[in-house]
Specification:
heterodimer; A: 9-stranded mixed beta sheet; 11 helices; 11 strands; 33% helix; elongated; B: 494 residues; mainly alpha; 4 domains; two-stranded antiparallel ribbon; 27 helices; 6 strands; 55% helix
C-alpha cells in the first residue's frame, strides 16, 4: 500500500513555500534607509544625516528612494523582486523597544507570535521538526507558540548523531520499526528519516552557493546562507527567523548604521542570487519595531519614532513602492515629530501569509 | 525595571539556609539525594508478560505520566486480580492527600519563587519565575506519587490556558497555578471556574481587567466572557448566542486587578462604578438589576450547571483518558456523573474510569504529547535529574513547553498536531540513553536491564507488553536497547 507522506517531501514538498523574517532590532531609521525624494524639509531637519539628493537610488517616480548602501537590493527592485514600504509600523506608541518589538512579533496584544500561530493554524499537514528555524541563539517572540521550532546556529543541530557518536544503526532500525507502523506516525517517521538523509548529504557535501552568489562572513549572511541551503534541500522548511541587531542610533548614527545597511543589502542580494528561480516560492520580509524621529538630535543621532520602513523580497511578482512617504511637516508628523504610521505592518503580512497557505486562519493568526 | 535582583539573591540565600536547617534537623536516613528528590527505595521490578498491553499497564499509561520500573509490580500486588488491583490503585490516586509524597514535595520546595505570596512575585525576574514554575511542573510530574492529581493539574492548565508571555501573566501565572489549578484540580468544577474567573493572571490574560462600564458610552470587554462560554464551560456548540456573551460581559464588568502600587499589584478588586448594574438575561435566566459583585456568582452558577457544560467537560475528559474520538456512550455516562454530582471532579473521573471503553477499549492509542513522552521516559528509566533546563529546551523544540501555548484553548490533546515531533523524540531518546542530555541527567542502562531481568524485561517494562520479534531483533542489531525502545513507535503511545 502506498502511504502518502505528511508534508516534508512527499506531501507538498515540491510546492513548499518558505517565509524568511528578518528583524532589524533597535529601530532602524526609515528616513535613512528609504529617504524622501525632492523634500526640502528633510534637509532642514537633518542637516548632517540627510542622504544627499543625488545619492538616493530612485524607485520609479515614488516620493522616496533607497539609501545608496542598499544598492544590492536596488538591483532586485529594478528586476521586479522587491517591494519597499515607507511609513509602516504598528499601533504601539510607547516608543519602547521592548513593547514595540513584542507587539510587532506578537501581531496584536496577545501572547505568542504571529509566525508561530501561522504554523499552528495554517492549512495542510502539521508542521515538522524542520518547519521552523530561528537562526541565532534564542527563540524569538515571533515564533513563540509554533508547534515545532528549532533554534540553531548551524546545520549540525539537525542530526541525531553529531554529538553522541554514530546513530546510523539506530536510524536503520527505526526505519524498520516505523516502516511497518500503520498509525499516523508511520508516514511522519518516514518523512523525518528522509529529511535526515538529505541533511546528512547536505552536511557532507557542503555545496557552494549557486549562481555565483557570494555571501559575506558576518553572522547575518551566514544565517541566510544556511537558510538557502535548507530551502534548496527541500526538507520542509516553512519559516525562518533571523535578526540583524544594532540599529538604535541615538548617537553618531551614520557610522553605526551604514555598515549595517550594507550587510543587510549584500546578504539579501546574495540570498536572492543563490536561490534564483526558487525565489518564486520564497518571501523575505524585513521589519523593525519603529522608525526614528524626523529631526536629528544634537549628537548626530536620532531618537525613537513611529513609522519606519519595511522591505519585501521575492514571492509573487513585486517591484513597487507600497503607499507613499507622507510630508514631513508639523500637523502631519505625530507625537514629538515622528513619521506617522500610514500602513499597518499586518496589512503587508496578511497577503503574504495567504500566499504561504494561511487559508482561513487569518483570524487566528491576527486575532482582533 | 521592577525587579530588584539583590533582594531576589538575598531571599534565595535565606531560603537555602532555611532549607539546609530542615535537612540537618531531620533524621539521618534522609540524605541530600533524597532531599533533592533523586533517591528513594525502589521495589522489585517484575515486568508485564502479556503480548498485548495488559489492564494494569493500560491504566498506568492513561492515569499517570507513565509507570516507573517497579510500579507495575507494586500495583499488581495490591490485589488478587487485575481488576481489583486497578480499582485499588485508582482509589489510592483519587485520594491524593492520603498518599505520602514527601520526596516530591521536598524536591519542589527548592523552587522558592513559586511559593511566594502574590505581591512578592513581582520582585522576581519573569524569566526566573517561569523557569522555576516549569521546573517544578516537570519535577512534580516525574516524582510525585500523586500521579493522577498531576495529570489533572496538567489537564486543567490546558483547559484554563494562560500563556505567560502575555503582559503581567509573566508574574501572575505562578500564583494561578498554585491557587486556581492545583488547589482545585480534584475538587469541584464550580470552585475551579470561580477561582479562575477571579485569578489575577486570568484577568490579565483574557482582558477581564479591562471590562468596565463607567458610563453609557463605554462597552464591556467581551474577551473573557466569550472564552468562559466557549472554552471553559459550555463549549463552542453549547447553545449560547452572541447576546449571551454580551450579557455575561456586562455581569462581570467592574472586576479588575491592580497594576500599580508596590504592595497592591496583582490584587483583585471590584469597582461598583465600573459595573453595569442593569438587569441582564443570561442563557434564559434573568439576573435582576442591582446585583453588583453578586452578578459574578449568578453567572457562574448558570454556566457551570448548564447541561452543555457537563457534556463539554465530559468529552474533554474522555478525550484525555479514553480516545481521541470517544464514544457517545462514554461521554454521556461521564456527563451524567458530572451533572448529578454538580461538578464533583472525583465523581466524574470515577465515571470515566468505569466506562467499558476505558477498561476494554483499544490500548496504546493515545499519542503521548511531548511533555508526556519526556516525563514517561524519565520515569521509565528512573533518570536522576538534578536540573531540568535541558528538558525545557526539548519541550520548546517540540512546541510543548508548559504555560506557553499561544491561544486560550490550550495545547491540543489529540494525536495529529503532534506528529511533527518525532525527530526530537528520537534525539531525546538517544541522548537520554547515552547520558548526553546534560551532565545533570543520568540513567543507568545496565542497572535497568539487570533489575528488569534482561533486555526483554526492560522492553516489557517500558512498553507494557513483551517486545515483538522485530523489536528484539532491532535491539540486538543496534546494541542500544534503551535508545531504540524509547524512540520506537511503541513508546510514543499511552
Amino acid at each position: 500500500m502506498a502511504v502518502k507522506g505528511t508534508g516534508i517531501i512527499s506531501g507538498n514538498g515540491d510546492e513548499q513555500r518558505a517565509l524568511v523574517v528578518v528583524f532589524l532590532r533597535g529601530g532602524a531609521d526609515g528616513l535613512t534607509m528609504v529617504p524622501p525624494v525632492g523634500n526640502g524639509e528633510y534637509y532642514k531637519v537633518r542637516p548632517t544625516l540627510a542622504v544627499p539628493e543625488g545619492d538616493i537610488l530612485k524607485l520609479g517616480d515614488a516620493n522616496c528612494g533607497l539609501n545608496p548602501a542598499l544598492s544590492g537590493i536596488h538591483e532586485i527592485y529594478k528586476n521586479g523582486g522587491l517591494t519597499v514600504v515607507p511609513a509602516v509600523g504598528s499601533n504601539d506608541d510607547t516608543r519602547s523597544h521592548f513593547y514595540a518589538q513584542d507587539l510587532m512579533e506578537h501581531g496584536c496584544p496577545v501572547a505568542g507570535g504571529w509566525l508561530g500561530r501561522f504554523l499552528r493554524f495554517r492549512d495542510g499537514a502539521p508542521p515538522t521538526a524542520l518547519s521552523a528555524i530561528a537562526l541565532g541563539k534564542a527563540m524569538p517572540e515571533v515564533l513563540r507558540g509554533a508547534p515545532a521550532a528549532t533554534v540553531m546556529e548551524s546545520m549540525d543541530t539537525f542530526s541525531l548523531g553529531s554529538k553522541f557518536g554514530p546513530t546510523a544503526k539506530l536510524q536503520t532500525e527505526l526505519g524498520a520499526l516505523y516502516g511497518k507502523d500503520e498509525s499516523i506516525l508511520g508516514p511522519a517517521a518516514r518523512d523525518t528519516l528522509q529529511a535526515l538523509d538529505r541533511l546528512e548529504k547536505l552536511r557532507s557535501e557542503d555545496l557552494p552557493p549557486m549562481n555565483g552568489a557570494e555571501y559575506g562572513d558576518d553572522s547575518f549572511s551566514n544565517g541566510l546562507r544556511q537558510a538557502a541551503r535548507l530551502i534548496r534541500a527541500r526538507v520542509g522548511l516553512e519559516a525562518v527567523s533571523l535578526d540583524l541587531d544594532g540599529w538604535d542610533s541615538h548617537f553618531a548614527q551614520e557610522p553605526l548604521i551604514m555598515p549595517l545597511m550594507t550587510r543587510l543589502s549584500d546578504g539579501l542580494a546574495a540570498f536572492h542570487r543563490d536561490l534564483g528561480e526558487l525565489m518564486q516560492k520564497v518571501t523575505v520580509v524585513v521589519m523593525t519595531e519603529f522608525g526614528r524621529r524626523v529631526a536629528e538630535n544634537s549628537s548626530f543621532g536620532t531618537d525613537h519614532g513611529r513609522g519606519g520602513a519595511m522591505l519585501v523580497m521575492g514571492g509573487a511578482e513585486r517591484g513597487n513602492v507600497f503607499g507613499e512617504l507622507p510630508e514631513l511637516e508639523t500637523g502631519i508628523l505625530v507625537g514629538p515629530g515622528d513619521v506617522p504610521v500610514e500602513t499597518d505592518y499586518r496589512d503587508i503580512l496578511k497577503p503574504i501569509l495567504t500566499q504561504h497557505g494561511a487559508g482561513d486562519s487569518m483570524a487566528e493568526i491576527f486575532p482582533t | 525595571m521592577k525587579q530588584r535582583e539583590s533582594d531576589e539573591v538575598s531571599r534565595r540565600h535565606f531560603m537555602r539556609a532555611a532549607a539546609g536547617f530542615t535537612l540537618f534537623s531531620t533524621s539521618s536516613c534522609e540524605r541530600v539525594e533524597d532531599w533533592l528528590g533523586l533517591g528513594g527505595k525502589e521495589g522489585p521490578v517484575v515486568p508485564p508478560t502479556g503480548e498485548g498491553i495488559d489492564l494494569i499497564s493500560h491504566v498506568l499509561n492513561r492515569t499517570t505520566f507513565g509507570p516507573t520500573p517497579s510500579e507495575y509490580a507494586r500495583v499488581k500486588g495490591l490485589a488478587d486480580t487485575e481488576e481489583s488491583a486497578i480499582a485499588a490503585f485508582l482509589d489510592e490516586q483519587l485520594e491524593p492527600d492520603e498518599l505520602e509524597d514527601n520526596r516530591a514535595q521536598r524536591a519542589v520546595r527548592r523552587f522558592e519563587a513559586i511559593h511566594a505570596p502574590l505581591g512578592e512575585m513581582y520582585e522576581y525576574k519573569e524569566a526566573f519565575l517561569l523557569e522555576q514554575l516549569t521546573r517544578a511542573t516537570l519535577v512534580r510530574a516525574t516524582r510525585s506519587k500523586r500521579q493522577l492529581f498531576e495529570v489533572m493539574a496538567h489537564f486543567w492548565s490546558d483547559h484554563f490556558n494562560i500563556d505567560v508571555s502575555k503582559k503581567e501573566c509573566r508574574w501572575l501565572k505562578a500564583a494561578d497555578d498554585r491557587e486556581v489549578i492545583r488547589k482545585n484540580a480534584l475538587g469541584n468544577f464550580s470552585d475551579l471556574v470561580r477561582a479562575s474567573a477571579l485569578s489575577p493572571a486570568m484577568l490579565w490574560y483574557l482582558d477581564g481587567r479591562e471590562n468596565r462600564k463607567r458610563n453609557s458610552s463605554e462597552t464591556p470587554n467581551e474577551n473573557y466572557a466569550r472564552e468562559l462560554l466557549e472554552l471553559h464551560t459550555l463549549g463552542v456548540d453549547g447553545g449560547y448566542a452572541q447576546k449571551d456573551v454580551m450579557e455575561v460581559a456586562r455581569c462581570l464588568s467592574g472586576w479588575t486587578v491592580r497594576d500599580k502600587g508596590r504592595f497592591h499589584k496583582g490584587r483583585v478588586e471590584f469597582f461598583s462604578d465600573a459595573h453595569d448594574d442593569g438587569s441582564k438575561t443570561v442563557l434564559g435566566h434573568e439576573i435582576a438589576s442591582g446585583g453588583g459583585e453578586k452578578d459574578l456568582d449568578d453567572v457562574l452558577e448558570i454556566v457551570c450547571e448548564h447541561a452543555s457544560t457537563a457534556r463539554y467537560l465530559a468529552k474533554k475528559l474522555c478525550i484525555r483518558f479514553i480516545a481521541d474520538e470517544p464514544s457517545n456512550e462514554s461521554i454521556e455516562a461521564t456527563a451524567k456523573a458530572f451533572s448529578s454530582s454538580r461538578g464533583d471532579i472525583l465523581t466524574t473521573l470515577r465515571a470515566v474510569f468505569a466506562t467499558d471503553e476505558f477498561l476494554t477499549g483499544a490500548r496504546g492509542q493515545k499519542l503521548k504529547r511531548p511533555f508526556e513522552f519526556i516525563v514517561s521516559a524519565l520515569r521509565g528509566t528512573r533518570a536522576k535529574v538534578s536540573s531540568e533546563m535541558d528538558l525545557v529546551d526539548y519541550l520548546i523544540r517540540m512546541g510543548h513547553a508548559p504555560f506557553q501555548y499561544p491561544t486560550p484553548d490550550g495545547y491540543p490533546d489529540v494525536a495529529s498536531p503532534w506528529t511533527g515531533t518525532l525527530l526530537w523524540r528520537w534525539h531525546f531518546a538517544i541522548a537520554l540513553s547515552r547520558n548526553e542530555v546534560s551532565e545533570e541527567i543520568e540513567v543507568d542502562q545496565d542497572e535497568l536491564i539487570e533489575k528488569a531481568g534482561g533486555e526483554e524485561g526492560l522492553s516489557a517494562s517500558l512498553l507494557g507488553r513483551i517486545p515483538s520479534k522485530e523489536e528484539l531483533a532491532g535491539i540486538e542489531r543496534t546494541g542500544e536497547p534503551l535508545a531504540l525502545l524509547l524512540a520506537s513507535p511503541g513508546f510514543q503511545w499511552r
